[in-house]
Design a protein that fits this description.
This protein is α+β, with helices and mostly antiparallel strands and 336 residues long. The chain is 40% helix and 22% strand. The protein has twelve helices and eleven strands. It has a seven-stranded mixed β-sheet with strand order 1-4-5-11-10-7-6, sandwiched between helices. It has a two-stranded antiparallel sheet with strand order 2-3. Strand 8 and strand 9 form a beta hairpin. Helix 1 packs parallel to helix 4 and helix 2 packs antiparallel against helix 4. The longest helix is centred in the first third of the chain and has 38 residues. The chain starts with a helix and ends in a 7-residue tail after the last helix. It binds phenylalanine (PHE). The site of phenylalanine (PHE) has 12 residues, from strand 10 and strand 11.
Length: 336
C-alpha cells in the first residue's frame, strides 16, 4: 500500500494533485480507513500488531505527502523567481559583451560629421534597377559600368547597386530642392577580392542641391570633412575626372596621413590619398528628374568607407574587414 501511495505522491505536481492523492489513501473511503474498520474482526491478541502496522503505514504516507508538498512549493517559488528575476543574493550571470565592427564605427563617425555640417541621412535599397543605377544618372547604354562582367544583375530583373549614387536619384525624384543629404550604404561590383577591392563594399554619397551652389562649395565641404575626420592639418585637392552624372567631374584626394592609437597626422613627405569621386550634378540629371536646371545647381560626391576605415585603423588589406577574425574584432571591443 505504501509503495503505491509513494508512486502516486511523487507523481503529484500541484497542491490539488496532492489533495486528491491524500483523499485516495487517507480519506474516509480509503483502503486504510477500511483496514481500521476491520480491526474488530481481528483476534484480540493480534490487534496491537495489526494496529501498529496500519499506523506506521499512515504515518509514512503522511510524511511522504508533507515531503512532496515541500517540493511542489519550492518548485513554484523557483518558477516565480525565474519570472521576476529578483533574487538579489544570486551570483550574477556572466555575459560577454560584443563590440561594433570597425566599419560600423567609421560609418557612424562619418554620419556624425555630416550631421554636424547640416546634412540629413537618406537611404535607398541595395537591390535597385537600371533607371536608378544608370539611366537617371545620364549613363549611356554602352557605358562599360553597365557590363555584365562588372554589375550583378538579378535573374528576376533589377541589379545590386554598384554605387550609392542611386540614392541621389531617389532623393531628387521625391523631394524638391534645397537638398542636403548623405547616404551611407553597401555597394556591389563583380570584383575579385584583393587588398583594395571587395565585391561588397561601402560608400557614403553626398548630394547638395540649391540655388547658387558652386564647385567652391564642394571643395570646401570635402576639406571640412577631411579635417574633421583626419585632423585640421589635412588638406584636400580635386583632380579632373569623368562621371556621366557630374559635369565637371573630379576625383578627390586628401593629403597623406598616418594614423595610430593617438590619432592621425600628416605624412612627413607630402603625398596624396584618393578618397572618391565628386562633381557638379550634370544638368541632364536634373532634367531627367524634373528639377529646373535653370535655377538650381548642385554637387555630389561618393567616398569609400573601407578606405577611410583602413586609413584610420591602419588596416593594410581590405579583406581583413570581412574575415571577422576574432583577433581583429576584439581590438574594437567596447567601442559603442
Ligand atoms: N558614384 C561614383 C562611383 O561610385 C562616385 C561619385 C559620386 C562621383 C558622386 C561623382 C558624384 O565611383
Amino acid at each position: 500500500l505504501v509503495e503505491y501511495a509513494e508512486k502516486d505522491i511523487f507523481a503529484c505536481s500541484s497542491p490539488n494533485d496532492l489533495l486528491n492523492v491524500k483523499a485516495k489513501y487517507l480519506g474516509k473511503k480509503s483502503l486504510l480507513s477500511s483496514l481500521y474498520a476491520q480491526m474488530r474482526n481481528i483476534p484480540v491478541e493480534e490487534r496491537p500488531a495489526f494496529g501498529n502496522l496500519i499506523n506506521e503505514a499512515k504515518k509514512r504516507i503522511e510524511d511522504l505527502l508533507e515531503q512532496q508538498n515541500k517540493v511542489i512549493k519550492e518548485n513554484a517559488w523557483k518558477k516565480n523567481e525565474a519570472k521576476a528575476g529578483t533574487d538579489l543574493t544570486m551570483p550574477g550571470i556572466f555575459s560577454s559583451r560584443g563590440g561594433l565592427h570597425p566599419l560600423t564605427i567609421i560609418r557612424r563617425e562619418i554620419d556624425e560629421v555630416f550631421l554636424g555640417l547640416g546634412f540629413e541621412i537618406a537611404e535607398g535599397p541595395d537591390i535597385d534597377d537600371d533607371f536608378h543605377n544608370f539611366d537617371a544618372l545620364n549613363t549611356p547604354l554602352d557605358h562599360p559600368s553597365r557590363n555584365l562582367a562588372d554589375t550583378f544583375y538579378l535573374e528576376g530583373g533589377g541589379l545590386l547597386r554598384t554605387h550609392t549614387s542611386t540614392v541621389q536619384v531617389r532623393v531628387m525624384e521625391k523631394y524638391p530642392p534645397p537638398i542636403k543629404i548623405i547616404s551611407p550604404g553597401r555597394c556591389y561590383r563583380n570584383d575579385k577580392p584583393d587588398p583594395s577591392h571587395s565585391p561588397v563594399f561601402h560608400q557614403v554619397e553626398a548630394l547638395v542641391v540649391d540655388k547658387g551652389i558652386s564647385l567652391a562649395d564642394m571643395k570646401d565641404m570635402l576639406s571640412q570633412f577631411a579635417s574633421i575626420m583626419f585632423g585640421k592639418d589635412v588638406s584636400s585637392r580635386i583632380r579632373p575626372h569623368f562621371f556621366p552624372f557630374t559635369e565637371p567631374s573630379a576625383e578627390m584626394d586628401i593629403s597623406c596621413v598616418v594614423c595610430g592609437g593617438t590619432g592621425c597626422r600628416v605624412c612627413k613627405y607630402s603625398g596624396w590619398l584618393e578618397m572618391g569621386g565628386a562633381g557638379m550634378v550634370d544638368p541632364n540629371v536634373f532634367d531627367i528628374l524634373g528639377i529646373d536646371s535653370e535655377f538650381y545647381t548642385g554637387y555630389a560626391f561618393g567616398l569609400g568607407i573601407e578606405r577611410i576605415a583602413m586609413l584610420k585603423y591602419n588596416i593594410p588589406d581590405m579583406r581583413i574587414l570581412y574575415e571577422n577574425d576574432l583577433r581583429m574584432l576584439r581590438q574594437f571591443k567596447g567601442e559603442f
